[in-house]
Amino acid sequence: MDRGFLSSLPKAVLHDHLDGGLRISTILELADDHGYTGLPSHDPETLRRWFHRGGSGSLDAYLAAFTHTVAVMQTAEALSRIAYECLVDHAAERVKYAEIRFAPALHTRRGLRLEEVIEAVLDGMRRGRADTGVEFGVIIDALRQERDADPVARAAIHFFREGVVAFDLAGPELGHPPDAHLAECRLVREAGLGLTVHAGEGDGPQSIWRAYGRCHAQRIGHGVRIIEDTVVRNGEVVALGQLARTIRDHRVPLEVCPTSNLHTGVAATPAAHPLGALHRAGFVVTLNTDNGLMSDVTMTDEFAFAVDHHGFTIADLEQVTVAALDAGFGDWAVRRRIRDEVVRPAYQQALTVP
Q1: Which helix (H) or strand (E) covers residue 135, if one does?
Q2: What is the C-alpha separation between 129 and 91, in angstroms, rounded?
Q3: Cα–Cα distance measured from residue 2 to residue 309, given in angstroms and rounded to the nearest whole number
């Protein structure tokens, strides 16, 4: 399919990190404004190439680049600006609904409180929605390797129904199982927040089991290593293990980020990525960017990845977009309107184009 055609299709994203999607120009301006001298280069193109984590090969190496984006996200003004630009950039790719996540504890180094950090991001998101029409929800991340998940969870609950829609456990998987934070997961679920957990990216199916079976996550961030609990022949899933069957049959959405997965070493080549096999086997697959800057990727790129390497059709792209809207944590009336009045008519029209 033509890239311009893919770009025109309406989209929804559930897994996108605010601190992984900054504009290069914004990083340079904020570094100058805040006196941050740690950037590896001040030449825009050189800096763009440095941030691209295409050759990182592991999750830990991939995450190293966040040192510099987080460093320039330490004031309310910077956070609001970056949140606003995030929605503007997604709008350019015809994203109609976006759930954007970030870890507020990372942005308190200059004295901001967790609540002030969240409010600044919500301010930028609200301005972005007003100017672009993109509906949003904010997901608050706690870092599983840290010990501050409880205050982060409580800060998320404080802004529930003001734009915060869910809680997430992010950070390195290996050595930091999600069920080490059972108390926080229970706290946010009892408060009514959605719960998604990074699992099945840096660690295998056992991480997914802990996220779903013990933490009761409603969605799985990445989740692609569920393929290791299946039997695949000639690119097709022919048998399911107990966990894989549960995840599929219980319709647990997978927040799949194909390009990022290549960069972190989850899959060696685009064709080897389990996206197509999982989709055809009936798992609830959604397509996501993860980190637009570090992976140099947009939602249009992820659509092209699915089409070029896994044979996705217009109907398949509609299916994953509707799945994302159905799996979102934001207001159901808003998501249903986008699904029924924007997405479905656009894809039905696309199906009739010769």
Answers
A1: strand 135-143
A2: 9
A3: 14
Averaged over successive runs of 10 residues, the pLDDT of the chain (354 residues) comes to 95 98 98 96 96 82 89 98 98 98 98 98 98 98 96 98 97 93 98 98 95 98 98 98 98 98 94 98 98 97 98 98 98 98 97 79
Query: How many residues in the chain?
Result: 354
Give yes or no for a contact between 303 and 317, defined as CB atoms under 8 angstroms apart.
Answer: yes
**Alpha carbon separation from 219 to 58, 213, 326, 327, 328 (Å, rounded):** 23, 12, 12, 8, 9
Cα angle 18-331-84, degrees, rounded to a multiple of 5: 30
Do the beta carbons of residue 277 and residue 254 sit within 8 Å? no
Give every CB contact of residue 228 below 8 A, 6+ residues apart in sequence. 204, 205
CA atoms within 13 A on the CB side of 162: 14
**CATH code of the region 3-352:** 3.20.20.140
Q: Which tokens belong to 347?
A: 């894809």
Contacts of 92 (CB under 8 A, 6+ apart): none
Whether 190 is a known active-site residue: answer no
Q: Tokens 């695949």 label which residue? A: 232
Which of 135, 201, 255, 302 is an active site residue? 201
- Which DSSP string do the residues of 22-54 spell out, in sequence order? --HHHHHHHHHHHT----S-SSHHHHHHHH--T
Tokens 């979102």 correspond to what residue? 328
| Contact between 17 and 101 (Cβ < 8 Å) | yes
Pair of tokens at residue 107:
């942005």
- Burial state string for 320-343 with b = 16 or more CB within 10 A and e = fewer than 16: bbbbbbbbbbbeeebbebbbeebb
CB 199 within 8 Å of CB 210: yes
Joined together, the tokens standing for residue 62 give 């991939």
